[in-house]
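Exercise 7.
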Amino acid sequence: MAKFLYRMQNILNIKYKLETQAKTAFSVAAAALRREEEKLEELRQRKRAYEIEARELASGKLDFLEIRTNRTAIENMKELIRNQILAVHVAERNLENARKHLQEVMTERKTHEILKDKAFEEFKKEVEKEESKAVDELVSFTHNHAQEG
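Solution. The predicted structure, written as tokens, is:
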């Protein structure tokens, strides 16, 4: 029986590699998002700690320099949190773009696999047709020689 060779196998192999790269890019983007979210949570925790400290400073002996320093720290934390929220949004957008790219690459790969499957089915039909023809010729040849003999 003839061996099936898919003419566009090299393209399918490239599609597999592109899919692997897209999966890697997606996982890198997901990890970056997790890191940014963790940073944001750490900043929020630090801000809460400063706010607790502010309440303690206001309830005890008033040290205005310490209170001012604490308020400045809280304002700085608010600014850092705003910046970190932006970083989280950027990471989310990057993850979404990586997801879309992965989806496109997977679709292309699946399309080529379907084309390969169809080509294989056509190949099988052709081989079966040739085998059937060969069997018919053999039967006809055997039948004709049996009548002659």
